[in-house]
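Each field is set out as follows.
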Amino acid sequence: MQDKINLRPLRLSDINKKYLLWVNDPSVTEYLRIGKQRLMRNDLVRYIKNSPKEGRHNYAIITTNSKLHIGNCSIYSIDKDKRKFEIGYFIGEKKFWGGHYSSMLIFNLLKIGFIKMGLEKCTGYINENNIKARLTNKFSGYKEIKRVNNFYEKKKNVIKIEISKKDWLKNAQVLCSKFPKLYEI
């Protein structure tokens, strides 16, 4: 049976060998903005310490039963006037790739943004070649809006995606009824 996940604030104590392996593994970071740069512990400490000043809310992804830290996620680019935000995530522990883990963490991030923060729209960009993430986002209720060429670097085409609070609530009801052990509002 699939383990459920919870999100908790990311702490400096989460920066360990495992976390450093994740952010320096090209297969984990292939579609992330950090790309192939080599990160050191000090880079991660600075990132976590500077995040609140930059309006970024970072979370550790923790399995409910085994209490394993399997990855990280965040809410950022919060625009309170337009009531929108973006999310980002990665699952570093490869044995947790697949199943509902990515969709559960998206669900929980959107729940925080829409319910706790009172925001109305989540937008973002996804590499057009990241088929698994595109399918997960579709499953999570996102709509693909348009293609954007050369977004981050040359030859990296992305797709703009978005989901409204109204659409998320509809999708959340479906997920909660089909998979009540994994999703709850």
About this structure: The beta strands are 5-9, 57-63, 69-79, 84-91, 121-127, 143-148, 158-164.
